[in-house]
Design brief:
It is globular, with a radius of gyration of 27 Å. It is built from 18 helices and 28 strands. Helix 14 runs parallel beside helix 15 and helix 17 packs antiparallel against helix 18. The protein is of the alpha/beta class. Strands 16, 20, 21, 22, 23, 25, 26, 27 and 28 form a 9-stranded mixed β-sheet that branches. Strands 12, 13, 14, 15, 17, 18, 19 and 24 form an 8-stranded mixed β-sheet that branches. Strands 4-6-5-9-10-11 form a 6-stranded mixed β-sheet, with helices on both faces. Its EC number is 2.7.4.1. Belongs to the polyphosphate kinase 1 (PPK1) family. Its cofactor is Mg(2+). Catalyzes the reversible transfer of the terminal phosphate of ATP to form a long-chain polyphosphate (polyP). It catalyses: [phosphate](n) + ATP = [phosphate](n+1) + ADP.
């Protein structure tokens, strides 16, 4: 038996982010999309340092009692290994960026810096700087202050070194310029020769250093970028007189002063400037110092403009309607007769909004209850709920204010909805509410009938365009009564409910999932058909991994599609030889949780909000919903199989080389493109039959 049964969670996450970087390097991906993958890689890394690296650092600082972390690693050693990997991958990302920008020149797109500005471009850039940039600049003269003000988390700064001649000797003056986020990072320069020119805001500021510091007489001036990443853990302890929202808002603001966990700097920065900054900011060598390139905050490349170059971005797909469910008609009438499945972004998210809008207007609808985790910045979901209140409906919203990095947005909407008369529930003490559910009560023939939906993803119009997720629309009274019990639990959470259909965390998921795996072991031992097929974002819970190892040793065939963290090690003799595992990273972010258990000839199929992570199983409110409609069950099995057959964007976890693309014979089969084709065919067949 292998000594180490699990991959380390943090290192597994870094491998996932390397798969994102692979997309940026992939020549088959359109050039501007490759830039955007670089942005995703950088944004992911920022969040990793704010959360996971910060957590490991706290474990290390806790002393001997907390030295061990996931996978049996010593915390201090793990911090060093993370830093080494990140430095290597940052360097690789810079090489990829340089390569992409060179290739853009072949398409008459030029990303220039301050040294390449022509005399024709100079006038526009000076005027743009004076009108748009200069009023937004925050400039900190460091020599004149005892301590650097707290630099904003993950903001980019230019560290300026000004060399002045004073009393016959040269002296250095150090300055920080905050790069304003209120101005677009990529400034398009008007062109008259058919070529397109972009200059980064950073270089535009460098080009205008003489304008910013025209009151100084200096010998030379230089500017190099730095940024700091802070611990993003929220502290909600303290003043008992404060409301929960007040504490949360204060805590979000306090992130500005969180402990630094990473300091990234341009590796070309002068050593005396770097030493001055580190001393002034009181950053010691235990923090993660990452030498980088000229530009930081490369997450901004997520929004790199397409410049009208449609051949350099992915073709936009037109989200399809759900066969048999006309969005112009009454959704409730159709759902009362049959369940329907929505699979975004292949099918339109508009059904979710239409469901709530119809409920808001329907005189027979008496109440709406919904859980909200992450809302879009402009949310039609929230507008529909407010509209329902105005029409006399009772609306209850369980909103998770601690959805990481969306706290401020959720608080904004919570306050708006509360002002309009929506009843708000702020989750359960000690548990995040991560389930995605909605239930409405409708009076039909003097009796209340339930309608609702259960989803694997957030009710968010923006992410629904780029995240793949399933939503079940149903009038199954048993399932919906169970959802109603979940809402009862939010309000009276000292009573543990019993559910006839749903699997609900934190009380039942571990035992129910274990029972489902155990039944497959029993079936296999009895010579019956068995198999376990799971698709999720992350798999890191040791107990569930051990149960899958047990099933593998018993001979049960297991297929895993894990996008992100995967602490299970497949294809190890005597431990996991019957487990195959892949990860798909492509145009869309794979987000559904889909669980299929063979169960002889009668597969049990579930969609869920829960990954198999300890936090989802034991420390959050999650809902796993069974699929009873045979057509939908078959659809889910078929879409799983489409993903499983991917031989273009699938990486093989059992490969000896890290993040190897899967080697599978046959013609190229790209699952996300094939999934869209699958739904086109279903729609065509439905129209033909009708």
């Amino acid at each position: 038996m292998r000594e180490n049964k699990y991959d380390n969670r943090e290192l597994s996450w870094l491998k996932f982010n390397q798969r994102v970087l692979q997309e940026a390097a992939d020549p088959s991906v359109p050039l501007i999309e490759r830039l955007r993958f670089l942005g995703i890689f950088s944004n992911n890394l920022d969040e990793f340092f704010k959360v996971r690296y910060a957590t490991v650092k706290r474990i290390d600082l806790a002393g001997k009692a907390g030295k061990k972390v996931l996978g049996g690693f010593n915390a201090g050693r793990l911090l060093k290994e993370i830093t080494q990997i990140v430095i290597k991958k940052q360097a690789e990302s810079l090489e990829i960026l340089a390569s992409i920008q060179n290739q853009l020149k072949d398409h008459d797109i030029f990303v220039i810096d301050e040294s390449e500005v022509t005399s024709e471009q100079a006038k526009f850039l000076k005027e743009f700087f004076l009108q748009k940039v200069s009023p937004a600049l925050v400039t900190i003269m460091l020599n004149e202050i005892d301590k650097v003000p707290n630099l904003k988390d993950s903001k980019a700064y230019l560290a300026v070194k000004m060399v002045q001649l004073e009393k016959d000797r040269l002296s250095n003056r150090y300055i920080l310029i905050e790069i304003p986020s209120s101005v677009e990072r990529f400034v398009e320069i008007p062109s008259t020769n058919g070529k397109k020119y972009i200059i980064l805001l950073d270089d535009l500021i460098r080009y205008n250093l003489d304008v910013i510091f025209n009151i100084f007489d200096y010998d030379s001036i230089s500017a190099h970028m730095v940024k700091i990443t802070r611990d993003a853990e929220l502290d909600l302890e303290g003043d008992l007189s404060k409301s929960y929202i007040e504490k949360l808002m204060d805590s979000v603001k306090d992130r500005i002063e969180g402990d630094p966990v990473r300091f990234v700097y341009d590796k070309e920065i002068e050593q005396d400037t770097l030493d001055f900054l580190l001393k002034k900011m009181e950053i010691d060598t235990t923090d993660s110092l990452i030498p980088g390139g000229k530009y930081h905050n490369r997450r901004d490349y997520i929004n790199f403009p397409d410049l009208g170059a449609k051949h350099l971005i992915y073709d936009k797909i037109e989200p399809l309607p759900i066969p048999g469910l006309e969005i112009q008609g009454s959704l409730l009438e159709k759902i009362s007769k049959k369940d329907f499945l929505q699979h975004v972004p292949y099918q339109t998210f508009s059904y979710t909004v239409k469901f709530l809008r119809e409920a808001a207007l329907d005189p027979k609808v008496k109440s709406i209850k919904i859980t909200i985790y992450r809302l879009a910045s402009v949310s039609h979901i929230a507008s529909s709920l407010i509209n329902a209140v105005k029409n006399g409906k009772r609306v209850t919203v369980s909103i998770e204010l601690q959805a990481r990095f969306d706290e401020a947005n959720n608080i904004k909407y919570a306050e708006k909805m509360e002002r309009e008369g929506v009843k708000l529930i702020f989750g359960v003490t000690g548990l995040k509410v991560h389930c995605k559910t909605c239930i409405i009560e409708r009076l039909e023939n003097q009796k209340i009938k339930y309608y609702g939906f259960i989803s694997t993803g957030n009710f968010n119009e923006n992410t629904a365009k780029i995240y793949t997720d399933y939503t079940l629309f149903t009038a199954h009274q048993g399932i919906l009564k169970d959802i109603d019990k979940v809402f009862d639990f939010f309000e009276v959470n000292y009573k543990i409910k019993r559910y006839k259909h749903l699997i609900v965390s934190p009380h039942y998921s571990r035992s129910k999932f274990s029972d489902l795996v155990e039944q497959e072991i029993i079936n296999h031992n009895e010579g019956k058909k068995s198999g376990i097929y799971l698709k999720m974002n992350s798999l890191s819970d040791y107990g569930m991994i051990d149960k899958l190892y047990e099933a593998s040793r018993a001979g049960v065939k297991i297929k895993l599609i894990i996008r992100g963290i995967n602490c299970l090690i497949p294809q190890v003799k005597g431990m996991s030889e019957n487990i195959e595992s892949i990860s798909i990273v492509d145009k869309f972010l794979e987000h559904p949780r889909l669980y299929i258990f063979q169960n002889e000839e009668y597969p049990k199929v579930f969609i869920s909000s829960a990954d198999w992570m300890t936090r989802n199983i034991d420390h959050r409110v999650e809902v796993t919903c069974p699929i009873y409609d045979e057509d939908i069950k078959q659809e889910l099995i078929e879409t799983f199989d489409i993903c499983w057959n991917d031989n273009v964007k699938a990486r093989d976890f059992s490969s000896k080389t890290e993040n190897d693309y899967r080697k599978k014979s046959g013609p190229a089969f790209r699952s996300q493109f094939e999934t869209y084709t699958y739904y086109q065919k279903k729609l065509k067949a439905s129209k033909k039959n009708n």
